[in-house]
Amino acid sequence: DAKTTQPNSMESNEEEPVHLPCNHSTISGTDYIHWYRQLPSQGPEYVIHGLTSNVNNRMASLAIAEDRKSSTLILHRATLRDAAVYYCILPTDSGAGSYQLTFGKGTKLSVIP
Amino acid sequence: DSGVTQTPKHLITATGQRVTLRCSPRSGDLSVYWYQQSLDQGLQFLIQYYNGEERAKGNILERFSAQQFPDLHSELNLSSLELGDSALYFCASSVAEAYGYTFGSGTRLTVV
């Protein structure tokens, strides 16, 4: 299984942009890159995913390196509600269109008021 | 509300007992996944079902079992409970990789 490497923790000031890095040097050509986050006392929440091109949605942007060996989750203006553990994951194909997520330790993001 | 419903929200039981956790997936999702999250282990994948059939197994103990019913809801059965089984148990569902997983709010199991 392709692995990801993330910093254990990061800090950001409120209302400033946050760039959360992820390295996945063993990624294969068909591996999607998914990001999830888990707020305290809640279940994980899907944030964004991509394959090759940069992606934007209402929550965040995902910048994927040209060689796909790294990616960066961008929160454009951090709020206190964004304080969470962020997970970068390469789903594993379970067969017949289904897939499996293996969570690592993620990056704990603290947002300073 | 994520659309994935887990019951009960909290469960306290004694060692040696058996419990059943229930999960109703989001409408239209065929895959159901179970995860265990304890303080020292993080989120651990237990098992996946797809349209009623077991699709993948993770770190699931032999004392644990699961099934997915024809209406696609799933149950996770935990037996001969030990103190170390105290954890949050999450269920997630998905329709396809392009749409990500949707997680429920979890069942907090406390074994005393």
How would you describe the overall organization of this protein?
The complex is a heterodimer of chains A (113) and B (112). In chain A, a hairpin with a 2-residue loop joins β9 and β10 (98-100). Chain A is globular, with a radius of gyration of 14 Å. Chain A contains no helices and eleven strands. In chain A, 0% of the residues lie in helices and 48% in strands. Chain A has strands spanning 9-13, 18-23, 33-38, 45-50, 55-56, 61-64, 70-75, 84-89, 92-95, 98-100, 107-112. With 113 residues, chain A is mainly beta. Chain A has a five-stranded mixed sheet, with no helix packed on it. Chain A has a four-stranded antiparallel sheet with strand order 2-7-6-5, with no helix packed on it. In chain B, strands 2, 4, 5, 6, 9, 10 and 11 form a seven-stranded mixed sheet that branches. Chain B has a four-stranded antiparallel sheet with strand order 1-3-8-7, with no helix packed on it. By secondary structure, chain B is an all-beta fold. Chain B has strands at residues 5-7, 10-13, 19-24, 31-38, 42-50, 53-57, 64-68, 74-78, 87-94, 102-103, 107-111. Chain B has no helices and eleven strands. Chain A binds chain B through residues 32, 34, 36, 38, 42-46, 49, 91, 94-105, and chain B through 2, 30-31, 33, 35, 42-45, 48, 50, 55-56, 58, 90, 92, 94, 96-98, 100-106.
